[in-house]
Task: structure prediction
Amino acid sequence: MPLQKNLRNLTIKQIEAQDTYKVRLPVLRPGRPIEDCEFNNDTHKDTFHLGLYYKSDLIGVVTFMRTINEDLQERRQYQLRGMAILEEYQGLKYGDLLIQAGESLVNEKQGKLIWLNAREIAVRFYERNGFKVSGDSFDIPKIGKHYMMYKTI
Ligand SMILES: CC(C)(COP(=O)(O)OP(=O)(O)OC[C@H]1O[C@@H](n2cnc3c(N)ncnc32)[C@H](O)[C@@H]1OP(=O)(O)O)[C@@H](O)C(=O)NCCC(=O)NCCS
Result:
């Protein structure tokens, strides 16, 4: 059952972890083996993945995982991971649709806060979606500078 549908032939629905690899690989792990697309807890029962389809093509993905980040006081927290839109569809604000759909599902599951580690180039995108930077930047090996960001919902 689609979570969201609009006039631009875009649909968002829940997908399996393995389905996300088709978008994670070219966007987040280019040139790396498919095994590098897998995240810890991808198949955990509390994890969910959303796929954004243009007509029948999967063009964007995002993953939400229940976490226990001790730096956060709010315990009903989810981490947003693996946000990716295929290159030819970037810059069209489609990422906003995945964030909005994810937030409403987290809300349904009684989650109160979403946090993430943002690549430097994506900080503005998350800020526009209501996330705030917390603390200084830090390095994630092979990927680069990141900022922890969060949003209470
Ligand atoms: C980050 C991402 C999910 C945002 O989704 P989106 O639908 O492209 O979001 P927007 O349309 O708001 O564009 C985001 C930014 O990318 C820029 N951009 C990226 N590709 C673009 C393109 N082909 N044409 C125009 N702008 C583009 C936009 O100008 C915007 O820049 P700004 O934030 O400085 O204003 C998506 O661009 C993406 O998958 N990027 C590569 C992977 C990545 O960095 N993921 C985040 C990991 S934390």
